[in-house]
Amino acid sequence: MVMKTLPTNANLPDLIAPIARAVHDDRVTSLAGVLAQLCEQGAFTPELFLPAQADHYSRKLIWHDPDDRFVVVGMTWAPRQGSALHDHAGLWGAEIVIDGVMNETMFALVERGADGRFRFERGMHRVSGRGTVGVLIPPLEYHDFGNGGETVAHSLHVYGGDLKSAQSFAEGADGWWTARRVDLRYDA
Question: Going by CATH, does the domain composed of 12-183 fall within 2.60.120.10?
Answer without folding.
Answer: yes
